[in-house]
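Regression test attached.
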Amino acid sequence: MFTQLGVIGCGLMGGSFALALKRAGLVKRVIGYSKSPSTTERAKKLGVIDVAAESALLAVSGSDIVLIAVPVAASEATFKAIRHLVEPGVLFMDVGSTKRDVVDAARRVLKERVGAFVPAHPIAGKEVAGIQNADASLYTGRQVILTPLPQTTAELIQKATDVWSAIGSHVLKMTPENHDAAFAAVSHLPHMLAFAYFSSVVKQPAGKDFLSLAGPGFRDFTRIAASDPTVWRDILMSNREEVLKQSQRFRHALDALEHVVRSGNVEALEDLIRKASDARAGWQMNAPKSSR
Amino acid sequence: MFTQLGVIGCGLMGGSFALALKRAGLVKRVIGYSKSPSTTERAKKLGVIDVAAESALLAVSGSDIVLIAVPVAASEATFKAIRHLVEPGVLFMDVGSTKRDVVDAARRVLKERVGAFVPAHPIAGKEVAGIQNADASLYTGRQVILTPLPQTTAELIQKATDVWSAIGSHVLKMTPENHDAAFAAVSHLPHMLAFAYFSSVVKQPAGKDFLSLAGPGFRDFTRIAASDPTVWRDILMSNREEVLKQSQRFRHALDALEHVVRSGNVEALEDLIRKASDARAGWQMNAPKSSR
């Protein structure tokens, strides 16, 4: 399907995409670039990429598909580095967890060439980062959101859909604005809450003793608190308006729970818990939904 | 080891204890009682108990080990129902997630007989309740906290330690006060946060659409939001002072994160996230610790 995949940012996401395309036989050769030469070298040693590029631009040269898998705040600099080789016919995608900022950067930098860029967000990840954790199955069974611009070439949207589908992902399309509002609610805020919660436990005088007693509920609730600081710094910062809105909603719900607990209103407390509990029990990840 | 186990409250916790003791060959016969006769009947049909008792008192009669596995708010009524058969030589335990209230109720009701009661909290559970989910392995590899009173018979503390150890649990001892402070931090508050967070998502106009996009991070973060409403109503209510203290600490940590996000202080945000992330990455459930 493709001759050469260029991966800019040889980390968990970029490396997993390369492995998935190789396993599916969708690409002949993978060329990779990372800011740190030792990372690029390691990616080559691990067989995730075949050729190490010395610049982002060289990773694009000769590629017919390019994945930009850098922290979202590095998107603009990456677009600048590669813009002279961005042309129609080559599929450019990213994997950023926020989309408005990436789309804005693409518009600013790529200008009339922006049609070659198909913004993408695969809903997949691990709490361990880095090329050494790359996994050909990371995207299997996961949703991938595309947020194309009005200028995005229809043919490239189709190609993007095909390549993600071919590695087992379910593709959805929405606007960057709707994407960022939704993921502030179901991903960005939970990360912020998990970071805040873990900090609050660790910082107390008896925190270490407390942690030695924690069980499986705690383990699962805090798993995302171990997420990559650079990645999440950028996500929370770039989507801060929506994240703060969601945090406000959360605080209202916490206020309500605290209020009934403090006032000793047993029935009201049970009612609030039951609504949340029933709703969560009825939720399923990737619930089938009508296509759009 | 024991002739007859009496289980009061044939739910997930009580049923799992019965199955574990049977599997380990630690008990000849299990007699069970639940407030709802249909539950007791189901426990018998499932082979979790051998004999259905018509009252809590009858479940104690002839038993040399008794597990009280009712929602914590029902502890006092249960002690009242059985007090005439509480005597030294019989091991009485509960499984409540809060200990000060249960210990207080035991003192009030059992008076000079309170020495037969060994308060216990196994750090185990599932987000699905009920006898049909009882599991002989629920307590394997889990910690069990005993919070004995000054009056608790040393011989019964030893018996309690032996029986939990025999089914694969690790036994720790602490005061009821330390127990409740620790579990407010690592268990009760996370449940309250998960209930609040799930409510806040569900209640928004686009909540359903948002939920269809949620991924594995969300799934794990919200797993405990599906927990049993009756059980958690009682836990949050009975340990409310400690829970509200912990919630206050959490709010301070969330304030700090929101502040740096709002003010655009990228370095400070990364620093806060990194501290939480490193601490969580270094945490392990049931990390080996010096015995006490």
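Expected vs. actual: identical. The longest strand of chain A covers residues 2-8.
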